[in-house]
Amino acid sequence: MDPGEEALSSTDDVDKLKSYLVSIQGKITDLEKSKTLKRKVSRHNSSILLSAQLTKDTVEQKNQEIDDLTEMMMRCLENADVEDFIGLCAKCKENIIGHENGCKALGALYHVNCFVCQKCRDPLVKKPFYHTDGLTYCEKDYLDTLEKCDVCEEHIKERILRAVDKQYHPECFKCTDCTNCLDGVPFTLDATNNVLCVQCYNKKFAYTCASCSKLIVSEDGAETYRIIAMDKDFHVACYKCEVCDSKFTNDEGQGCYPHEDRLLCHTHYKEAVAQ
């Protein structure tokens, strides 16, 4: 946001005009240097730079800027002796006569009635204003161009966070359960599209291992599996004989042999049945 510029004062108008002309001459010099650099690059036949910087439209635009600034400087010099001449308006290109009719903003001079909001057309002198994409807005109309946070419904003036087809202030994007901020943090959705951090999602929906009583969840983002036996859930590492800790496999005689709600290997299964 830029503060509204003050109307020009009547003191030192000549010095201001000289300074203004010097700034115009400086811009012309910079543009000429830019053209010279482009010509040098062109001689070296740098196709990459030519395609990126030296397009026909770019050169024509620079030429037009030089022509406009030169014309502005000449007109300022022609009108330097005009009483109360302040300079040329950057918008309408007409003379600004009288300090009360001019203002300085964005490094240029304007008629008070030319420096207005793009939307409501209200004058912006001595008012806060925003300049974006080459357009100038009063504070109210600028805010109306911004998106609103899906949570607090306030305008998002700075960084915007987009997630699940919505927009948020980063600090407003939180886990539905624990309310921790999820900016830059992994998250997921439940069946009703509530946003949850991974920890809260696991607490609500992850399966619990019947052997170690811990949640069966992914570690370090790696894929995880669960084994279902006797209508219970197990970690792969916990799927083993409850007597000797031998892990079950698909090999013959190495599988799981349930007995009285216990997971047993073939050897201990035979012993349990024999008792």
SSE layout:
Elements: H1 13-43, H2 47-53, H3 56-78, E1 85-88, E2 95-97, E3 102-105, E4 108-111, E5 129-132, E6 135-138, H4 139-144, E7 161-163, E8 166-168, E9 187-189, E10 195-197, H5 198-205, E11 226-229, E12 232-235, E13 257-259, E14 262-264, H6 266-274
Antiparallel strand pairs: 1-2, 3-4, 5-6, 7-8, 9-10, 11-12, 13-14
Helix pairs in contact: 1-3
Could you list some keywords that capture this structure?
alpha+beta; two-stranded antiparallel sheet; 31% helix; 6 helices; disordered N terminus; 275 residues
Q: How would you portray this structure in words?
A:
This protein is of the alpha+beta class and 275 residues long. 31% of the residues lie in helices and 18% in strands. Strands 1-2 form a two-stranded antiparallel ribbon. Strands 3-4 form a two-stranded antiparallel sheet. The radius of gyration is 37 Å and the shape is rod-shaped. The N and C termini lie far apart (85 Å). Residues 3-14 and 35-54 have low confidence and may be disordered.
